Amino acid sequence: MDRLKIGVIGAGHFGRFHALKTAAAERAVLVGLHDPDAARAGLVAAEAGCAVLDLDGLIAAADALIIAAPADAHFPLAMRGLAAGRHVLIEKPIAATLDEADQLAAMAAARGLVLQVGHLERFSAAHGAVAARMGRPLYIEAVRVAPFKPRGTDVSVILDLMIHDLDLVLALVGQPIESVDAVGAAVASAHDDIANARVHFADGCVATITASRISLKTERKMRIFSEAGYLTVDFAAKTLTLIGRDRGMALPGFEEFGLETASWQDHDALAAEHAAFHAACLDGGAVLVDAAAGRRALEAAIKVSASIAASRARAVRSGLIR
């Protein structure tokens, strides 16, 4: 098989990007698109140059599916595709519950199929730049805030935004979570729109992660403390600064410490994610963000949500909030 026949399920914001990227790919053919909103499906399909198909027809025509539907539809759609023998790239979160994630992983393993989860940040140039310069972290602080947009409010900010940094932190630390202490609030939607979580790992590392979708400006930053030094990252400016022993330019008066600054050139992370999926399906390559990684990120998000619920209950009991 030279090219992978792919069907896209979902014609929303991300579904459109997936369809256009697949249509332009060297190792894939976009065989069709499905969405319950026929008008929206028609617009995106016309832009991508593919047919609008019903779900059964799309699954029958494809070797692999990209699922970019609302989060609560991820499990039934992915299970249906896997049961039909199709490889699946599913947007984050992998599912709504850990049991659903386990069922998907078991089905993919039993059928020898690729199941990749769309944690896009893992394919970014920024992630590579940070991972290449960081020792084992002692403390990580991540901030991801943005102005309000109606898109994504079918889930909480934990599953909408924070899950990106949860996945990155889990990949950087490589240790199980021991405990989580979190607070959050629903301000502009029916779900939590702001959240802060302090995550304790089994090896003693601590991560503080803040996410908001009701801020006045967009900001993405990360700070990492380790025995190698102090690393600060500005994702918007595409810059990082590292202070540590035997690094870069010596600091006046502290010759044993050096200062290293670096930047990176953004590449097309979605194209890289697709290329990895194509390679896994066509060549048997490793799945960088597999079902286990998707489950870990989902489990972390569930723990954050549970801690927020417990914190809210305490605040209600104390009279802090009603």
Topology summary:
Blueprint: E1 4-9, H1 13-23, E2 28-34, H2 38-48, H3 55-61, E3 64-67, H4 74-83, E4 87-91, H5 98-111, E5 115-118, H6 125-133, E6 137-145, H7 157-173, E7 177-185, E8 194-201, E9 206-212, E10 219-226, E11 229-234, E12 239-245, E13 249-251, E14 254-263, H8 269-283, H9 291-318
Parallel strand pairs: 1-2, 1-3, 3-4, 4-5, 6-9
Antiparallel strand pairs: 6-10, 7-8, 8-9, 10-11, 11-12, 12-14, 13-14
Query: What shape does the CA trace take?
Result: globular
Measure the end-to-end span: 60 Å
Q: How many E strands? A: 14
Helical segment count: 9
How would you sum up the major sheet?
A: 9 strands, mixed
Secondary-structure class: alpha/beta
Strand order of the largest sheet: 7-8-9-6-10-11-12-14-13
The helix fraction, in percent, is: 25-40%
Rounded to the nearest angstrom, the radius of gyration is 21 Å
Low-confidence stretches: none
Order of helices and strands: EHEHHEHEHEHEHEEEEEEEEHH
Mean pLDDT: 92
Question: How big a fraction of the residues is strand?
Answer: 25-35%
